[in-house]
Amino acid sequence: MGQEIGLHSLKPAEGSRHRKKRIGRGEAGAGGKTGGRGQKGWGARSGNGRQTNLEGGQMPIHMRLRKLRGPHMKKSMPFEQFGRTHTQPVNLRDLEARFDDGATVGPAELAANGLATRKGVPVKILGQGDLTKKLTITAHGFSKTAREKIESAGGAVNVLDS
After folding, report:
1. What span, in angstroms and rounded, lies between the C-alpha atoms of 157 and 135?
2. Sign of the Cα pseudo-torsion (45, 46, 49, 51, in order)
3. From the centroid of its chain, how far is CA 21?
4. Which of 68, 82, 131, 161 is the most exposed, fewest CB within 10 Å of its CB?
5. What are the strands of the beta sheet with 123-126, ordered from one edge?
6. CB 123 within 8 A of CB 90
7. In angstroms, how far is the first alpha carbon of the chain from the final one?
8. Phi-psi region of 31 (alpha: psi -120 to 50; beta: other; left: phi over 0)
9. Beta 156-159 vs 123-126: how paired, if at all?
10. 97 close to 103: Cβ distance less than 8 angstroms
11. What 3-state DSSP class applies to 96?
12. What whole-number distance in Å separates Cα of residue 112 and Cα of residue 98?
């Protein structure tokens, strides 16, 4: 009859576990006397665990970084680009693919077609791609080339107030 397998018969694989080294058990034994900590000094003392902010005399990173001072001072932080406009771009090639000739396109229609789905973020129409359909487009902003291509195709441009 084979060995019964169950939770009571589980044990680690052969060679995967080994005994803890018993340090400081006499000068003759391995790790005796100083217990593998070298001679005197901070490393030989108890409680010498690595301190998170200690950089050995170098100015710590939390003191080297610039600080955010005030709720609207985004320019003081390196990861927020100063003067950046937050808009969601929509290219003309996407409008060409998703809308029929003569359609009226606004933020709600764009969201329904999977374009400009972030709520509360202004929509800007960019001029990448070609537009052959006559569309009436309403958005918060238009690039110069997008406006020219829409009007040359016979469409109309309406700018929304942000």
Report:
1. 9
2. negative
3. 43
4. 161
5. 88-91, 123-126, 141-142
6. yes
7. 80
8. left
9. unpaired
10. no
11. helix
12. 10
Amino acid type, 146:
A
Task: Find all residues with CB under 8 Å of 33, minimum gap 6, and list them.
Answer: 24, 27
The one-letter amino acid code at 64 reads: R
**Tokens for 139?**
């958005």
Can you tell me whether residue 126 is helix, strand or coil? strand
Q: Dig out the tokens for 128 from the structure.
A: 């990448």
Structure tokens at 55: 């950089």
Token readout for 151 is: 């009007």
Q: Provide the residue-wise pLDDT of the chain in tens; the chain has 162 residues.
A: 567 888 998 999 999 999 888 888 888 877 888 888 889 988 888 887 777 778 888 998 888 887 766 666 655 555 555 666 789 999 999 999 999 999 999 999 999 999 999 888 999 999 999 999 999 999 999 999 999 999 999 999 999 986
SS3 assignment, position 104: strand
Q: CB–CB of 31/24 below 8 Å?
A: yes
Query: For residues 127 and 111, what is the distance between their CA atoms, to the nearest angstrom?
Result: 19
- Return the amino acid letter for 51: Q
**Both structure tokens of 127:** 């001029």
Please state the pTM of the whole predicted model.
0.51
CA atoms of 162 and 160, how far apart (whole Å) = 6
| DSSP assignment letter at 103 | -
